[in-house]
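Model the whole thing, not chain by chain.
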Amino acid sequence: MTTNIGIKSKAASVEFKQVTKIYGGDVKAVDEVSLHVNAGELVTLLGPSGCGKTTTLRMIAGLEMVSSGSIYIGEQDVTLLPATDRDVSMVFQSYALFPHMNVFENVSYGLRVSKLNKKDILEKTNTGLELVGLAGYGDRLPSELSGGQQQRVAVARALVLEPQVLLFDEPLSNLDAKLRRQVREEIRELQTDLGLTVVYVTHDQEEALAVSDRIIVMRNAGIAQSGSPRDLYEQPADSFVADFIGEANIMDVQISSVDEHTGLARVTLGNLSLELSSRGMSAGPAKLAVRPNRIHLLAQSDVPSLEGVVRKSTYVGNHMEYVVATDHGEWFSISDNVDEVFGAGVKVQVVFSERGPVLLPD
Amino acid sequence: MNRTIALWLFVGLLGFCVLPWYVLDDGLWSFEWLTDGYPFDTDYAPALFLLLQGEKLWLSPVPVLLSLPLLGIVLSKLIPTRPRLLGQILCLAGALGLAYMLAQGFAIGIRGWNSELLVQAFGELGDRQFGFGYGAMLVCISFLFFLTTGIAARGAVNGDVFIVGAIGFVIALVGMFILFPVLNMLSSAVQDGDGNYSFGIFFSKLFSSKIWGLHCLTENRSCGVAWNSLVLALCVGALTTLLGLVFALVATRSGMRQAHLLRPLTVLPIITPPFVIGLAIILLFGLSGAVTTFVADLLGINPTRWVYGLPGILIAQLLSFTPIAFLVLIGVVEGVAPSMEEASQTLRATRWQTFRTVSLPLMRPGIANAFLLGFIESMADFGNPLVLGGNYDVLSTEIFFAIVGAQNDQGQAAVLAIVLLIFTLSAFYAQRRWLGKKSYTTQTGKGDSGIPAVLPRRVLIPSYILVSIWSIFTIVVYGMIFYGGFVEIWGLDHSITLKHYITAFGVTMTDNGLHFRGSAWDSFWTTLRIAATAAPLTAAVGLVTAYLLVRQDFAAKNAFEFGTMLSFAIPGTVIGVAYIMAFNVPPIELTGTGVILVLSFIFRNMPVGIRAGVASMSQLDKSLDEASLTLGANTWRTFREIILPLMKPAILAALVFSFVRAMTAISAVIFLVSAEHNMATSYIIGRVENNDYGIAIAYSTTLIVVMLVVVLVMQLLVGKSKVGRRVAQKITPTV
């Protein structure tokens, strides 16, 4: 994909102020959500189905109208503007290419509707097609393209309007796994090269981690946590986020004391004593989250560790998966070492990476 | 917004200042007025010139109301702090304007003021009302769209001018041409001859023994017409459902290869004028019918008129309406997922047990639906009872005779129409209330790899027998219709002749070119012209309504849907009576014109257009619309550039169906035809009443052939389409 800058970006920020969307009188699809997307930033809305992420996206586009609250794009209050009048383009999950128009007509549709002159339409459409690597495909009908090509036409169609905000609604869900990685990299590249403001909806956490500047995790019509991919993965706000983004072992623990000066909390698991960031919690019950790849199994350990017995040992090609039973619950662990494996029933020592365990509120 | 206002303002001014205000005597399409004293002759003058000459002074508020929106635009420019002002003024202008137009239209009648109160208030009026013409219509339209634009400006449906306008337009049409005539008819039923309201007379008419009498149970007299209709409709509903189910089962579950040949049957009721089957029955079983005379000769008895009455109507309606039940039930039978039956079989049920306990119960809602459809169709049927009724009077024919017979009792016709309407509306209501939501459809859109279970033997064999008998009978009936047109005089002289065709469709070459001297040409061309005018309008109204129903959300959408589908449940005879009562007098004076025929077709056939549109639009991915909207196109442009092109098959289907249905309709038409605008079907009925069967049959055959050609051409154009059912092609981007 070339990075010809014949198409400019008018990237603008997006702001939700206590936006609520109610369907049919009592179903709250989005509940008092406030969020901010900076100009030129790629923000992903991530969450399980029914969490309100698509509704949020459609409200940015103007395809759904808010029940209360207000929406700003750039400096402008667009709360009451219908989709037609907003400077926002969207790439749909089904691509929504017009089947009765060829690729050129599809991509130029928005330009024609905006009554640009013929020369500009031709130029911008061709630039758009070049940008997504489809120069020369103008005469094809959408039905004559592969899934990946259709997807690029949809992106070009949205790009040529130079929108203030570009929206993606699960754009990769109709592609096969290998193509997904490639297309998401292309989208990210376009976004950074053109400096676009992009809001991206997905339910695939890996996809979200890979493309985003920032991820907003949604749950039950509200925002669960917002932050950079690394923040969310390593410092999840609660067990929902910890579990939704990647897998996590989540155990009930007791915080025995919190050091006021260092902010470190002391947690004991058997003969294992951990000092972890208290994250504002005080002594009492809490949860401990540990990613499976931060749990290591050793035959013998010099440092303090948990004693356990391997219950399951599964070979999955590029790594091993273990389930280990200890006095303090069952732990799920993965290990890259596929050469020296522990069989089921073997006694092992369980240790955590230094930055592995994270405390979560109970 | 301002451009929209300017457009409707222009239309309104055109209507007020330029076009003739009142209806023209010579019909809508005559342009004699242009050269004949326009614009000063009061017959042709625009309202502006009428007022300037001091005539029709009650029109003077109209220009004031028309110019209100201008004031609105100016004010909203001057006071930018009140953004809602323009909308409010538009609403006010539109609502007041419409109200005033209607008020002046209805307050002044043929003999001056319509009500004593107004005479007392304003004194006698030395003038009369004429029907609304071009000018008045345009002004009404511009008021209507001022109102809808105003409502949109105040934020309804996201302030979408096109959508609000379309909703307003459809509501106005349905109100004017369905609700108004029907309500008007209801109110005339409670008036006595002098126009006074009298519920006593109404109730005595409504509950008279002529309608509800039960003499047939005790003595040798006929029962009331309501009972006759009811008994007939129940029989027809039950039997067509049974036959339709049998056909559907044989077509889909017999494993018979030839089963797909049954499908073309479904085209028959669409292309056959409703009374033609009745004619064929007469040819077969009438006094001099082929079967009657054969059996009489064989047994040595005198031929009888046994077929006239309940048996004849029943046979004719069964032949006419079974294909409709088949159409409904084949969808239902196909909707039962084969995997359900396979599951049942793996649970050790026999074929018969599976059929009885799984397949049949799953079809239950469809069966009830088919029954109600048959019931409504039978109640509304006019042609067959007219031809075959004998002494067995039913509501639809009684309504006709109350109007055209010696009695000419509109009140009686209205009362009978109310009874008929109560029956059909109850059935319609039951269908929607009780079955509308309930669906046992087990197909999910995911592929079902199961194979439909073959019918158990004890169902299959009787089914084959029934289907064979019915098919042979149908072939004989259509053969009769074809053959009958070539016979000198049926029953007396069976020599082959072309004379009926020559009488009806003779063409001679003269010096001036072709001369269509056959007696049927007049009505044939009229029918073609009117059907061709009605078809695009029907399709347009139907598709716009379908678009609103499928794609838009607005307050009172359910009521809107109910209102638009209502005309489906209103029998043609009722529409016919209601139209002549409502549109015989100003302000909408249409009786005797071609326009009233076109209008009746539009509103009789609108549900067909709506259904075709709804079915096809539901197949279009909604994100196509949304994509267009986010790319900056407004709803009107989206409708025009995305929806319409993708709906071509549905549009074509709606066009052809409304065309064909307009060609074959009789029940409403027979009230609305005039010497000048005679339709093929009413011409044929006239010939039947004169016992001129030869020409009637020759003409019917011609019609059937013409329509068959039309339907076939459409099938070619659309490619693969199922007539009468969803004509939608799945159009989603391949993934």
